[in-house]
Amino acid sequence: xxxxSPPSPPEQPQPSPSPWAPPATPPGKPQRTGLIVSLxxxxxxxxxxxxxxxxxxxxxxxxxxxxxxPARSDAPYSDPYDEEPYDEEPVDEEPVDEAPVEEEPEPVVSGPAAERDVTITKCARxxxxxxxxxxxTIVNGSGSxxxxxxxxxxxxxxxxxxxxxxxxxxxxxxGASVKVKAQGVGEVPTGTKCRVKQVTRDAM
Length: 204
Prior knowledge:
It is a single chain. This protein is α+β, with helices and mostly antiparallel strands. The chain has two helices and seven strands, in the order αβαββββββ. A hairpin with a 5-residue loop joins β2 and β3.
């Protein structure tokens, strides 16, 4: 080499790599960034289209289910119908037959009027036990069926009451007669007499 050739330029210093710079692509591997971006954009468009179609379908079905109110008729209203008054025909009511009024039974009678219906037919003392009894005949002298209660007293020779007895009968027809017995309780002496104390007649 000649001594007259120009000198070579000085070497420039190489800049140091920045820590925030992306890493260098290793040699021999092609970059796929563009393919990934294209796939992401295409997938987003497909999803957006599906959502729009779904929303449109829902709105369409909802609008069909809502019934529109019926249209008002322009025809004039008709006049109200006037009904003619209805004359009711008088109904002939049949007379009602009143039930016959039953006559009230005669009240309970006690005293001489009822005592006249009772007669003592026998006054005897039982020889075995010494008890006195009176046989009575009752004749219904009233105008309706009646029941009788007869009270009999048994007296000693001085007229003192030793014991008493009762005789009864039910539903004795008017004018009918019946024989009853009034039994005394307790032993009495010989010669005891019988007397009707009270008679009650109850109309049936």
